[in-house]
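User: Sequence in, structure out. Go.
Assistant: Echoing your sequence, followed by the structure tokens.
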Amino acid sequence: MATIPTDRSPDSTVAFLRAGYRFIGERCERYGSDIFQTRLLLEPTICLRGRPAAELFYDADRFVREGAMPVRGQRTLTGRGGVQGLDGAAHHHRKAMFMSLMTPTAVRQLGQLFADEWRARIPAWELAGPVTLHTEVASMLTEAVCAWAGVPLAAGEVDRRTEHLQAMINSAVSVGPRHWRGRVGRLRGERWAGDLVERVRAGTLPAPEGGALRVVAEHRDGQGRPLPRRVAAVELLNVLRPTVAVAGFVVFAALALHDHPAWRQRVRDDDDATEQFVQEVRRYYPFFPVAAARVRRSFDWQGYHFPQGRRVLLDLYGTDHHPALWPEPEQFRPERFAGWRGDPFTLVPQGGGGHLGGHRCAGEWVAIELLKRAVTLLTGALRYDVPPQDLAIDLRRMPALPASGFVVTAVRRIG
């Protein structure tokens, strides 16, 4: 039996927070292995990266998600009782609820709502001074996804709801003030979402047929029971929050267009080029760093032993940058996706494996649609200047963004 390389530190939590997205990859390079073990939050943890590792990690016969996410993350990012922490039949049943929302028509409708909101804001941007793209896109996505989900927003409520959703996103892997802002955002978001669900169930709030609010409110578990208020609130937020998180990808797309201006014309002229560009944005730029699971039953893999209950982390960022999978992984090269047929275990910014039966993000198609719309708008609906600013991406910060949020000035409509 082979011995898994072991990180020398008695606990690597501080090192993980300091290294951020590069923590697993740097140690894999150090040990000459795509697997090593360490301790995180004082708990033994096996870390993996690469395609074989991703294929292993998404084997539901070998891993479970229950208890894998640290409690700190449940109290901020994911909530408790949601689909991310379910396994087996319960997971399949709940995941089917989310997948029912992701029809091609529904995904296009959300994309159109986002594009309409974007175009509606251009006149105000033309009259404004500097515009911070991340702030504006997060707000637009909140408006668009709430309208799409059938969630009413009162006048002046958009900024508050965006703030709560953003606090959850920004607290995913954090300590100190960001963590506590995430806790507050989670509590207030669940209270708001829970009230909406109860009003729909009581018949005092009309909700569109097929919209996420109504679907979640009316969902029954495998025993025919409605979801508890808190769990229903978590699942409604699991539609809204990941959609707003796409604001980060949109900013990265704008940054890529700025750094690689030759692609502006290519994506304007060619839908295939847009597809390649969007996929490379998702591969190249940091989104969520890792996914977590626990070993269902002890097993051996490639000569390594995985004991029952052991926590395992799959390096999503490191797999998307693995040199054995992606030649010149640190180069932004959209053309690498020309003719790409898809592989659920190599491009994994939102998880790997299958959508329906596995734990790959149900909203991946939404993210791709919104990114395509954003690229089309950035290149075809407006011109803008990018003034000097700090566009550096600190990979120690999770989630990562350009420090400035990507500021534009002198916005003007095209046509």
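User: And one key feature?
Assistant: DSSP finds 15 helices and ten strands in the chain.
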